[in-house]
Design a protein that fits this description.
Length: about 120
């Protein structure tokens, strides 16, 4: 068995982790940008275009989880597998939190939110 620290696999994992950090920041920013004032929220609902961006980040996270699972299947060092499983769990937890935030934003009452939801195909 070999260590992933100095291998091509290690480089892949670090690249995935870096991309994940950037994606998480992008998703949080999109969710923050989707919020309107209380009056705007009541009449128009959230900004669905920004919520769609956050949803795309969630899908990218799912792909990253699949990539990490493939890498984990290729290595034999148990310590490395444990470390990878921790990263996978973190990504999955972040996706659940992101999904909950998106659901919270889209479930708020608004008079015309349904119309904007159709327009932005959310």
């Amino acid at each position: 068995s070999y260590s992933i620290e100095n291998s091509d696999t290690g480089t892949q994992i670090r690249a995935i982790a870096k991309a994940q950090g950037e994606a998480e920041n992008k998703a949080n920013q999109a969710i923050d940008d989707s919020k309107r004032s209380a009056v705007g929220q009541l009449f128009l609902g959230p900004k669905y275009q920004q919520l769609r961006e956050a949803k795309q980040v969630m899908e990218q996270n799912r792909v990253r989880v699949q990539e990490l699972q493939k890498i984990m299947a290729q290595i034999s060092n148990q310590a490395d597998k444990t470390q990878l499983q921790t990263q996978i769990n973190t990504l999955e937890i972040q996706n659940i939190a992101l999904e909950n935030q998106l659901e919270s934003e889209t479930n708020k009452f608004s008079f015309l939110g349904w119309l904007f939801s159709l327009i932005y195909q959310y």
